[in-house]
Design goal:
There is one protein chain. Strand 7 and strand 8 form a beta hairpin. By secondary structure, the protein is α/β, with parallel strands linked by helices. The two termini are about 35 Å apart. The radius of gyration is 27 Å and the shape is elongated. Helix 10 crosses helix 11 and helix 12 packs antiparallel against helix 13. Helix content is about 45%, strand content about 10%. The C terminus is likely disordered. The strands form four sheets. A five-stranded parallel sheet has the order 3-6-9-2-10, with helices on both faces. Strands 1-11 form a two-stranded antiparallel ribbon. A two-stranded antiparallel sheet has the order 4-5.
Length: about 375
């Protein structure tokens, strides 16, 4: 088997240029953080809204680094059997059946059950060894002889107990299996963790990582992303669709448009224009494009009310802003977690009236 040769980077600019070759448009600051994570061998935790390029960074990083991508998709109820390893019981049973006749002959030599039982207890039948492990993503990244990028995607969807399982990997790049021993990484993995800010992550996990908040890009960068990922879209259409997305992101939506959805909308606008339906700046076409940008009927209704309730010089004219910087939305991770005092606020106690105590983007077409 041929082992891939991993690539290293000497600077953030080199990382930025390499990512651009994969149509991943990163700004200077973000590229430097990515370079530091790879150079220092530290896990990189990316937090921010869904669809701003967190997952795509891991994919692009694997491509430019000549590494294998190992992905653990997190979900509620994920445990060590699905993330670390589990024993192949069918294979173990087959192994025992193959040894059964030989074991029976040896046990028959003993006069008592106690002696036979002691004999069996002292034997090592090899049932708990690496040969009988069913490898899951985390252990796969540790055992891989070739360099890997380990992506722990949407870690905020798991329970805190799952975070505890990650600590040994993040800090020491090893996994301990009680029945076998400790497996140290055969090659140093690049670890990317992503979070959509649905809950606050534990300080223990954050302490072991470099951290970067990845938000929505500026209009200029988003236009660059759209034209890079959808070359068939002209600059004018890209600008109009990007501006429409910026207006929508200013509204109190259940789900704001992601970068991949903006790319889909730009492609849709190009198809509609080719079919003669009209330009993306037309109100009729704009309403059709909401099907690509918004995923909830309540959001569509809110958006249409916003456009119908205000006369604009252009259907895609955005509200006046002091700068072109992306708007930061409030997230769970941006606020301190509630403490017990806050939870029981107003339920009694010595002082029930006392207020409770509260404890640049790199983007591609997908996440």
């Amino acid at each position: 088997m041929t082992i891939a040769t991993a690539r290293s980077f000497s600077s953030g600019i080199e990382v930025k240029d390499a990512l651009r070759e994969q149509d991943y448009i990163a700004d200077d600051e973000f590229a430097v953080v990515v370079h530091l994570a790879t150079a220092l061998g530290r896990p990189l935790l990316l937090e921010g809204p869904a669809g701003v390029g967190k997952t795509e960074l891991a994919k692009s990083l694997a491509a430019i680094g000549g590494r294998k991508l190992v992905r653990l998709q997190c979900y509620e109820g994920l445990d060590d059997n699905r993330s670390l390893y589990e024993w192949d019981y069918a294979k173990q049973l087959l192994h025992v059946q193959m040894l059964r006749d030989r074991i029976s002959d040896q046990v028959s030599e003993f006069d008592s059950v106690a002696e036979a039982s002691k004999f069996l207890a002292d034997q090592d039948f090899g049932l708990y060894s690496e040969n009988f492990l069913s490898v899951r993503p985390l252990l796969e990244a540790i055992l891989s002889p070739e360099p890997v990028v380990l992506l722990v995607d949407e870690v905020d969807r798991t329970e805190e107990s799952m975070e505890a399982l990650l600590l040994e990997i993040l800090a020491e790049q090893q996994i301990t299996i009680p029945e076998v021993g400790t497996f140290v990484a055969r090659s140093q993995p690049w670890v990317i963790l992503t979070s959509n800010d649905t809950r606050e992550l534990s300080p223990a996990l954050k302490r072991r990582c470099l951290h970067y908040h990845l938000g929505y890009p500026t209009s200029e960068r988003e236009r660059e992303i759209v034209t890079a990922r959808a070359p068939e879209v002209d600059q004018a259409t890209a600008s109009e669709v990007v501006e429409l997305a910026r207006i929508l992101r200013d509204l109190p939506l259940r789900k704001s448009p992601s970068i991949s959805e903006v790319i889909d909308a730009a492609r849709a606008a190009t198809v509609l224009a080719a079919s003669g339906l009209g330009a993306s700046s037309d109100a009729k076409v704009r309403d059709i494009l909401l099907a690509a940008l918004l995923k909830y009927s309540s959001d569509v209704t809110l958006a249409k009310e916003r456009f119908d309730g205000k006369v604009l010089e252009s259907p895609l004219e955005s509200p006046v802003r002091s700068s072109d910087a992306p708007v930061e939305r409030a997230t769970v991770a941006s606020r301190p977690a509630n403490t017990t005092t806050a939870v029981f606020r107003g339920t009694g106690g010595r002082d029930s009236n006392q207020p409770g105590v509260r404890g640049g983007s790199g983007l591609r077409s997908s996440r």
